[in-house]
Amino acid sequence: MSRRSQIVEECEGLMDQPEQIRNIAIAAHVDHGKTTLTDNLLAGAGMISEDTAGEQLAMDTEEDEQERGITIDAANVSMTHEYDEKNHLINLIDTPGHVDFGGDVTRAMRAVDGAMVVVDAVEGAMPQTETVLRQALREGVKPTLFINKVDRLISELQEGPEEMQERLLAVIHDVNELIRGMTEDWDRDWTVSVDEGTVAFGSALYKWGVSKPSMVATGMDFGDIIDLERADKRQELHEQTPLSDVVLDMVCEHFPNPVDAQPRRIPTVWRGDADSELAESMRFVDEDGEVVFMVTDISMDPHAGEIATGRVFSGTLEEGQDLYVSGTAGTNRLQSVGLFMGGEREEVSRVPAGNIAAVTGLKDAIAGSTVSSVEMTPFESIEHLSEPVITKS
Ligand code: GDP
After folding, report:
1. DSSP reduced 3-state for 180
2. Nearest-atom index, ligand 1, CA of 28
3. pLDDT by residue for the chain (393 residues), tens digit each?
4. Do residues 58 and 344 touch, judged by C-beta distance below 8 A?
5. What is the pTM of this model?
6. If you count Cβ atoms within 10 Å of the first and of the last residue's Cβ in the chain, which end, N or C, has fewer?
7. Taking CB atoms and a 6 Å cutoff, what residues make up the pocket around ligand 1?
8. What is the spatial distance between Cα 107 and Cα 139, in angstroms, rounded to a whole number?
9. What is its main location (predicted)?
10. 235 CA to middle of ligand 1, Å?
């Protein structure tokens, strides 16, 4: 069986097991390495070639995609990862790095339960680090921290172990100060910690990573890493402690699955009647409940046309359903229902609650629309621009 058909089969098998799903975003200040990290994860999961990850920049360049003959959707990729003897479906949604797209970041955050915040070890936390953290926390999305470009501390800045440790601890401290400031009145502590395994370090460019649990598992500590990096043995470093394993293990262990996340998040992100059957169905990720689908992104596919991507909070999406689109009159009929597998959309017969789905047929939907089988309070109110009415005289 080809790797691709194997992935398709794995993803389909996992979409009915919400405990094994993680819906996540990678969020960062521009140039801190979000794209390079994403490529690493895809390569590690076998979705793109190991050799070119880091150079491919799968998340941003369409031309490059065409040259490689595969379509990586700009916004969404899914992958599978084996952790703790279980396979996991990891759906990654892209978040725009620019401050002006604040609305889009919020929307992307609403569809996920965990956000990996990437910070450049040399630059430290920057203004957009603060913005994305605030957006994640406001949406009840749990953060973890990946400190990137650690190779630069070793090879370029020639820092010794103590200097490096001091710098990395300062980054963690700054990020935690931001988190503390934004969650002062919470009873939950979402600061990140090396000991708990919610912080990882590494180099997305050279594809190696390390965390406290990975050090225990591989026996590689910072001393070994400094030695190999200084000796320019980066391939060895990658093979001994691959970044994608370290980061995806952290995702599976520390980010909540939809069943854990939705009971807590629905009351935060949805302003409708908390006592209604619909609210209950969303809290409990009920695949037999009414359909509630929040659209985060609309993209164009040369073959399928307009594709609406978003999070299924309740019910099960199926081809042929007539669904209400918030802010518009009447319903739209679902033409096809799919999942992202790798960066490509694969049509399936149904997508149950807890997943990120990619569907066609929602001609009235825009990014931010709430799509549902019963009329309901939308996640966000959107002003639809009405088309000019042309009357014949
Ligand atoms: P994004 O804007 O956050 O998506 O950042 P990119 O992934 O596009 O990376 C920005 C620049 O930093 C590119 O030139 C990358 O090659 C470089 N870069 C990314 N990760 C690393 C790293 O771990 N080490 C070094 N030295 N450079 C990196």
Report:
1. helix
2. 3
3. 676 677 778 888 999 999 999 999 999 988 999 989 988 888 877 766 555 555 544 444 444 444 433 334 445 788 889 999 999 999 998 776 554 445 566 788 899 999 999 999 999 999 989 999 998 999 999 999 999 999 999 999 999 989 999 999 999 999 999 999 999 999 899 999 999 999 999 999 999 999 999 999 999 988 999 999 999 999 999 999 999 999 999 999 999 999 999 999 999 889 999 999 999 999 999 999 999 999 988 888 888 889 999 999 999 999 999 999 999 998 999 999 998 876 678 899 999 999 999 999 999 999 889 999 999 999 976 544 444 444 444
4. no
5. 0.89
6. C
7. 28, 30-36, 97, 148-149, 151-152, 203-205
8. 9
9. cytoplasm
10. 18
What ipTM does this complex have? 0.99
Q: CA angle, corner 205, sides to 356 and 79, nearest 5? A: 20
State the closest ligand 1 atom to the C-alpha of 148, by its place in the atom list counted from 1: 23
Hey, which of 205, 207, 225 would you mutate to test ligand 1's pocket, going by the most ligand atoms within 8 Å of its Cβ?
205
CA-closest residue to ligand 1 atom 6: 33
Instruction: Name the packing angle between helices 127-138 and 102-110 (round to 10°).
Output: 40
Distance (Å) from CA 150 to ligand 1 centroid: 11
